[in-house]
Write a structure and sequence with these properties.
Number of strands: 4
Strand order of the largest sheet: 2-3-1-4
CATH architecture of the largest domain: 2-Layer Sandwich
Distance between the termini: 24 Å
Radius of gyration: 19 Å
Helix content: 25-40%
Shape: elongated
Number of domains: 2
CATH topology of the largest domain: Alpha-Beta Plaits
Number of helices: 4
Strand content: 15-25%
Structural class: alpha+beta
């Protein structure tokens, strides 16, 4: 009912629009946003990764699936092939994650940046009709 008030539509109209967005794949899933610090993960870092050759991409992507501290992975253009978002408890844990990533087949280099403060954190940008 809060959404219906905000956009001046009936509750049933809002429910129908949400259902259509789910059916067409506009809404893929529902999730929660976790306060990382409340879980004990005091540190966020971004790690750029270079692969020796694109043939290593699939194996790399598969291997990081089991690394829980890597919360996002983006294949990108630029000097590095991949960008990893890491959420961990300490610099010691980050160092261990770095060692694990460097030991993966095909990884040739990394560059890590520690996040000092998150200024904005949204998961998608919805363009509103004009």
């Amino acid at each position: 009912s809060n959404i219906s008030k905000e956009i001046h539509l009936s509750v049933s109209a809002v429910i129908e629009r949400i259902r259509k967005m789910e059916e067409t794949g506009v809404i893929k899933e529902y999730t929660i946003i976790v306060n990382e610090k409340k879980t004990g993960n005091e540190m966020t870092a971004m790690m750029e990764v270079s692969l020796e050759h694109p043939k290593y991409f699939d194996d790399f992507a598969e291997q990081i699936q089991g690394m829980d501290c890597i919360v996002s992975c983006y294949y990108q253009t630029g000097d590095f092939d991949l960008l990893l978002k890491i959420s961990c408890q300490s610099s010691d844990e980050l160092e261990e994650i770095h060692r694990q990533v460097m030991s993966l087949t095909g990884v040739s280099a990394t560059r890590t940046h520690v996040v000092l403060k998150t200024v904005k954190n949204i998961y998608s940008a919805i363009r509103r009709p004009e």
